Prior knowledge:
Elements: H1 30-51, H2 55-63, H3 73-85, H4 87-95, H5 107-122, H6 128-142, H7 147-162, H8 164-174
Helix pairs in contact: 1-2, 1-3, 1-5, 3-5, 4-5, 5-6, 5-7, 6-7, 7-8
Amino acid sequence: MIDAESPSSTHAPETNAAAPRTRASGKSSKNSLRRRSRELALQGLYDWLLSREQVSEIELHMRAQDDFLPCDEAHFEALLRGCIEQAGEIDLALGRHVDRKMSELSPVEHGVLMIGVYELKHCIDIPYRVVINEAVELAKNFGGTDGHKFVNGVIDKTAADLRAVEVEAARAAKR
Length: 175
């Protein structure tokens, strides 16, 4: 089950986003911890896209936030470091489906797209539809008014490139 609770904003990612919801048992679900990790990674990517600061400095800044935990720390680190270290490769994958220069994208949408591509490439345990849904939710919560529509289209097309077998199997099952 995907936890749909997230902070709403039409501006850049905020650093005091709400923590994930917890189950009745008091434990955060794995999905909400991952969602929180994506939110934090997006904030870090936003900083990086604007400043090009060292990933270690951005990670320290993010971890110093009062509301950093609870999150899936390993997933946060993989997303932040992986997206920054593979930014060129990720942008090449995105470039096939983006109708403008990457430098013309808003830093929020660019960061969301980077996270989506990274998860499609490296987080095979996450179904491609979940990757798309999570990217759309990030864009709705942190991006511009219709940014989520753009993100949906780009990640959907990129998923067909990066996970062709999975996407085709899902489409064939609908027929």
